[in-house]
Amino acid sequence: MSGTLVLNASYEPLCVIPVRRAVVLLLLDKAVVEQPGELVLRSERLAVVAPSVVRLQRFVRVPRRTRVAITRRAVLARDGERCAYCAGRADTIDHVVPRSRSGPHAWENVVAACARCNHRKADRLLSELGWELGFTPRAPRAPLAAQGHVAVPDWEPYLVGWQDVSVA
Q: How many Cβ atoms sit within 10 Å of the Cβ of residue 41?
């Protein structure tokens, strides 16, 4: 089992947490089981069915980000882990207009790059090298945590219509 889906009191999906944390929420009466799992956790005096989906007893207000944060993982996910310069496997990120030349740290200026291309480019502009980008970098539309997360079949009724589920 990969984890437990946590729903707000309003049945809005919030995040995915480890099963042990979900059991602690149940034991503290902070959550109730909406969908039991298959695993049974046992102690000397207690046996608890590990939940697949829990719902919080009280509503938790969660502030929503208007933009996805720029992280290495997010840039690699947006670009499909492909180098923007040679289309090889990317493992670093690069600023198209280098920061040393007043390039902003923004989605529109950051691309995935392989170590070789990133090193060759260094702090130069693409025009100085005669390189071109095959695409225009943009901010992702949907949260990347939801795009790459594989849901458990038990969660599908709770995730219909929701795309902003983060993995904790």
A: 13
